Each structure stands twice: as structure tokens, then as C-alpha cells.
Amino acid sequence: MPELPEVETIVRQLQAALRGRRVASVEVLRADIVRAAARPLAEALPGRTVRRVTRRAKRILFDLGNCTMVVHLGMSGRLTLCAATSPVAPHTHLRIRFRGMSDELRFRDPRRFGGVWLLDEAAIHDTGHAPRLGPVGPEPLELTPLEFQALLAGRRRQIKPLLMDQRAIAGLGNIYVDESLFEAGIHPLSRAGDLTAAQARRLLAAIQRILRRAIRSKGSTLLDYRRADGESGGFQRLFRVFRRTGQPCPRCGTTIKRLIIGGRSSHVCPKCQLRGT
What we know:
It contains 6 helices and 11 strands. The protein has helices at residues 4-18, 41-44, 145-152, 159-164, 174-184, 197-216; strands spanning 23-28, 34-37, 52-56, 59-63, 67-72, 78-83, 92-98, 103-108, 115-120, 257-261, 264-268. It has a 5-stranded mixed sheet with strand order 2-9-5-4-3, with helices on one face. A 4-stranded antiparallel sheet has the order 1-7-8-6. It has a two-stranded antiparallel ribbon with strand order 10-11. A hairpin with a 3-residue loop joins strand 4 and strand 5. It is elongated and about 55 Å long. The model has no long low-confidence stretch (mean pLDDT 94).
């Protein structure tokens, strides 16, 4: 699933390309990809101007004036700009054309865990009007050390599942949690509330550092993710532990191990990330 750096990369490209553009036409190729909309997109969107494209957690938000179109990429979604005359790939569910542009915006999602919501200003913060868009926690790049320490305080939950819980902290997933915990020298099974203030500060700094590196590299492409221009990200070439099971730790040379935590694969250096640290 695309995580914060991948979504941020797409948002920055779309903001540069689409800000100020007016929607000319909309074609919905699969109706059930639209999760919530008071009116059909083909009726509601034409004539509206994209004021800005932003991100909240793993969601892409198109500010269209008095309403917002939200796109969630799910597990396999791609949101790309391509020539309107180019062949339409299988599993393309939405096409949006803009006045004065030869390129169009396409949403493709083979596994269909993603979706599109068209919400008015009241509904954008009310998940009752947005099925499958639950509440999300604070943005990790905006957290202060004191706020992060407060978020962890008293929590008996293991640190990795907590960091991956979108209700606790927004935008993180398997890749960047593994990489951040390694960077901070913290074992993924450590209980969040047992981390010292120094460890919490070190972990937040690692999370923010890893996320910024990944954004500079335009995200990580493992299978489905592509940037808005259709190109791959580059951060996968910089992984230090994620999916490097059996390879030497880049810091100490110890063999990297794979654990299953909360039903998900986790990658750890047994020496650099001692249990209980």
C-alpha cells in the first residue's frame, strides 16, 4: 500500500500540474469505485476548478471550492496523468479531463481497496458521511517531541503495531516503520509506553528523517506504486532492513531477521535492535 512518501509525491506532482485547471469532463468506468457522492461525478465535477491538491494521511484531497474530492489508493491504486489519447489500461475506473490540457487524470486500482469520495465541507470531517474513511491521527512530520512522547505514554501496545495504526499516527506503514525503528535502534516488539523520553525523541527524529529521505526519492516502488507521471520511485534502493531478510545489516553485519508482528512481516537486526530497546 502506498504510504505517506508515495502519496506526498503524487500530491506534489498533481498540485503543480492541476492547480487552477477547470474540469472539462468525467468518465466513471466502474461505478462502485465511488464510495460516497451526493451527485454523480460526471454531473458534479465539470466546470469546477482545482484550487489545490493536498494530502491528509494517505488520502489525496482535491479542493474544488465548496466540495472536496478524496482519493484513497488502497493497496494497488495509481493516480496518474497521461495523454488522453493513450491506451486505457485494464482496471482503470475513472478518467478526468481538464480544459486546455492534452493530459487527463486516471485512477486505476486492480484490487479495488481504494476509492473516490466527493464530500462537502461538512462531510469532509464527518466519517459517518464517508464510508471506509475512518478517523486518522496526527501527521508525523508535524509532531513535536513532546507530542510524540504524550502519544506513547502509558501505551502497553507494541511499538510497531501502534505506529502502523492510522488512528494513532497518520501515513506510516510497513516500509517506513521498519526503516525508522532500525534507524532509531528500537526493537519492533518494544512496548510503546516503556520507551524512555530519549528513545521517543530518537524514534521521532528517525521517522521524520526517513520520511523526508523517501519523499526526496519520490517514494518506494515495490509492485504497484507509480508517481503521477507514471515513473517509479527510488527509495527502495536505499532500504536498510525492509525486505532484506538474510542479508547483512549495513551497520554491524549481523544477518537481518524477519518476524511476524500483528500478522505483518517485520525486518530487524537482532544486534542493533535488541529486544527491550
